[in-house]
Structure of TetR/AcrR family transcriptional regulator:
Amino acid sequence: MGKYHHGDVRNVLLQKAETILTEEGPTGLSLRRLARMTGVSEAAPYRHFDGKDGILAAVAIAAFERFAEQLESVAANVAHHEERIMKLGAAYVGFAVENPQHFRLIFGRERPPLDQYPELRDAADNAFDVLQRAVTSVDRKAEMTLTEAATAYNRALAAWSRAHGIAMLVIDGMIVPPADQELGDFVLGLLAEDLTAPSDL
Amino acid sequence: MGKYHHGDVRNVLLQKAETILTEEGPTGLSLRRLARMTGVSEAAPYRHFDGKDGILAAVAIAAFERFAEQLESVAANVAHHEERIMKLGAAYVGFAVENPQHFRLIFGRERPPLDQYPELRDAADNAFDVLQRAVTSVDRKAEMTLTEAATAYNRALAAWSRAHGIAMLVIDGMIVPPADQELGDFVLGLLAEDLTAPSDL
DNA sequence: TTTCTTATGTTAACTAAGTTAACATTAATG
DNA sequence: CATTAATGTTAACTTAGTTAACATAAGAAA
């Protein structure tokens, strides 16, 4: 009978997994529900993925790739160094706000362990590389002294932390961005604050 | 017979819950296991807590309180405004690193919804108040103009975001603090970076 | 073509967890 | 002392992750 064998179950599963994840997050994604929604037996996903972690890994890889692409495209279009850092931060937060579940998946503890999924590790490394290159103006890395390189690295970490913190606090609802302002502008404002300056208040 | 009725099951449960949470995080905390470890029936916890969320809420409340205390004690001991912000950030990250699971519990999405646990909401609000007061020098709030207040608020958000980002990235293993440096100094260094300054590299 | 093998799908079962209902016992209170 | 509220217990229901055993389809090998 012709109801066996869908033709492309793996991709359909991945697609539906994306949908469920977007709506309910990693915890809400249940393999059994996924299978039912796909119209396939509850054990079928195990033929295509290494259990739940396997599916999450696949989704996370795709998410990392999209994330890296978006950062890259911003970095490539801003020549000025400081401006690039700021815009990158805004893009970082932008991705998080537009794809909160994916963002949580790739950074949170629901993410399958990197050392069990080499492709996932590669995707993660690549995303961080994009970030670092953009922040550190790596083109000139060869010319740097060790001290300079350390300074540059610290700048990268500082920039990254700030963007990450804003992203987290916003998607977790702890910070509510003002409604009368573009999200990007709000983020740029926060990134530009210099806490070492006296408060003049 | 005398094996019924422990005497103080609620507190024992809470205590064990703390232990399990510290070791395995919110997801690893299973009510059934908790009950077994406490030597009590698997349904007993439901007599004392409103299900799993109820226990998590109770633990989260305690965590918020400790968090707030630690921040408060730092803030109270540093008079200088800019220095206080920095030290507060370091303390913020310090708490996260020493109590990663608790930190995740109070900020992550495993935290029971604030609107279902009023005491939890109060604990959270209080912690943020401590933070804001310390960052904003609220003693003089009355004297501020609206613009000044907005500026001060933004400074608070910026400081908070940075500390939060560092905390998250460190406890998630994305940033590995240098081994040859005190964690506090490392954090202070990151907080002090001013990304608006030219990179001079 | 026929046969063997591999990929892919199915059913059925096992384990563990959250939760609730129905029942038992204790402690406290009138 | 009798009643009641609090606190435990057992047993059951539901959902989920996972695996084993079996079935079928497709393609390679004979």
Observations:
- Chain B has a mean pLDDT of 90.
- Residues 51-76 of chain B form the longest helix (26 residues).
- Chain B touches chain A through 47 residues (CB under 8 Å).
